[in-house]
């Protein structure tokens, strides 16, 4: 799987981009070196957009690079005086 498609490559190889989204999962397209959009299958879109889907359910099938880790460092005390 490609990590990301540059916009010009995505345009030039749109059929391949669509095929990759169908077979391998969501595909990221970058513009000027920044993540711009994600191309995903209609089935995946419906799964993610269902009103009764919890965030946990939606993220359960996400690639590992989309998983977040919580910063567990202590928060300094704040004085409101």
From TrEMBL:
Coiled coil: none annotated. Pfam families: PhdYeFM_antitox. It comes from the Bacteria. InterPro entries: Antitoxin_Phd/YefM, YefM-like_sf. NCBIfam families: phd_fam. Antitoxin component of a type II toxin-antitoxin (TA) system. Belongs to the phD/YefM antitoxin family. This is Antitoxin. It comes from Deinococcus ruber.
